[in-house]
Amino acid sequence: MNKTQLSLALDRMDRIYPNVMEPDYREEVRRLGAAFPPLARTARQLKDLLNANRTTPHAVLQEEAGDRIRELHDRLRIDAQRLLHAPVWPYD
To answer: Which has the closest alpha carbon to 65: 46, 79, 78, 43?
Structure first.
């Protein structure tokens, strides 16, 4: 994944975000974690949280785990932005 692909993946995640249970959102999280080792831990935590609650209704999920999901989403976004703006890009 190059810088453009990372940027597009982050944009897709942000567009889908309110509907975190959509398979597309989980797939973007998985792809980011697989492509970039510095993002792997946060992506895995978010993916595991979403997978564990796949059958939970969206309203209940937001009430019970909404803050944690938002925290992980934001951390993944911030860490990815740091990668994008790093002086050296070792992932090409």
So the answer is: 46
